[in-house]
Amino acid sequence: MIEKMPFTYKRSKGLISNKDIFKTKVGKLPKDFPKYPSRGWTIPKIVKIAIIFLRIGISQRKIRRMYQQEMKQPPTEIPSAPAEFWNEVREKARSLGIGILGFTEIEENFLFSDDRITHIKNFYSNCIMLGMEMEYNAMDVAPNPPASVETLRVYAALGEATIVLTQFIQEKGFRAFGTHPMEGPILLPAMAVKAKLGKIGTQGILISKEFGPRQRLSAISINISPVPESPNVLPRIVDFCEKCRLCITECPVDAIYEMPILQSDGRLTRIDADKCFPYFRKTHGCSICISVCPFHKKGPILMENIKDGL
Ligand code: SF4
Ligand code: SF4
What we know:
Elements lengths: L1 E2 L39 H30 L5 E2 L3 H13 L4 E6 L20 E8 L2 H5 L4 H27 L4 E4 L8 H7 L4 E2 L5 E2 L7 E8 L14 H8 L1 H5 L5 E7 L5 E4 L1 H10 L5 H4 L2 H4 L1 H9 L3
Helix pairs in contact: 1-4
The chain binds iron/sulfur cluster (2 copies).
One iron/sulfur cluster binds next to α8 and α9.
């Protein structure tokens, strides 16, 4: 069934990304910078990382090409989809290893206006937010190499899964394009909260009921409306964070603040990207603020207690 209505793209309302952090040179770290525990970087792990980077690069290029292709002929109508379609999407996502999935209207305040890498400017009305779990044991030893390898592995696997799910939606006759988990103009954690996948923890990461802070996110912009409502009841993570504060005390570079700060990009956040990013790059993904988080350690049990008002 086609719902006749004027077609409009969604566009950024001016959110500026903190792109300066990408200019940070790891070699310029101060002398007193915390020592990186680099034990365990064996030749097989280095080869594995090289292959993962190759996969990431291929999927990033493919996603950018798919967007360019989409924009050649903008749609003029926004179709609706039957309930079976959404069930098929959920099933397909599960088969691709996507652990959490939610639907939401695109919030233009969560779109960056200056993405010079992907050049994605126009979005359809709605999106599907996707999350893929990072394996518990690997993330538990962050910032050592198994956590870095796992973080990058999931970036690669989620990028590839995003492509396959986008193609699946297109084959069903709908317009769609994906954004890669490692780049693109969507403020992914904020949009994931809007899709009711979880809440943002003090360390600035999405905390979901399913995996705590242990997932990476991506999105598929879809020219379909309406989208299914999410029945997810979210626990009061913010209240718990106020009592916990472990990520604040355990961050090796004091990049997580007690109170939100105004970033150079105009966003209010507790994470000082200028402090975090050099260490994040040096360690190929740090993730200490994930490994120490109680929602990583005892996720589902904790969530149940919080739901009851802890
Ligand atoms: S470590 Fe504690 S304060 Fe930090 S995000 Fe997790 S629960 Fe919240
Ligand atoms: S990733 Fe590492 S450096 Fe960055 S905020 Fe988390 S613990 Fe701190």
